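Recap from last week: sequence in, structure out.
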Amino acid sequence: MPEQPGAGSFGCLFRVERFGENTILREQENDELQFMVNAASYLASDYEKQYREMEPFARWNLPEEIGLEWIDATEIIHSDALSGRVSEEAKAILISIRNHFEDAFKDSSKAALWTADAMKSSSFWEEQRSLAKQFLNVVS
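Predicted structure tokens:
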């Protein structure tokens, strides 16, 4: 089954498979922990790597794509399957990352965070990357 180019990076938490005229989305990983490790690894990367690994069609909107994918991971972060495999500390870090993205989306005064320049140098993105690295250290 052909995959969309770039599948496997965080820029595609979901893989697209086409069956005739039907298109379905499947999680890249069936394993919730691996899914979040992949998400954190991608977030922990610098802007240049994030840009290279994002699906080409989504690069124009890279900051929002990353933020929305974290917000969309809410169910996974709060799932029993993940809770049974990570410490409370690790889960708290994931919740913090997710909440920071949601708060920034809700606050119109933070519109400047959703630019490539902000991703490269803002304290918000530095903190998100730092939290992602903390999560990876806790689960390793």
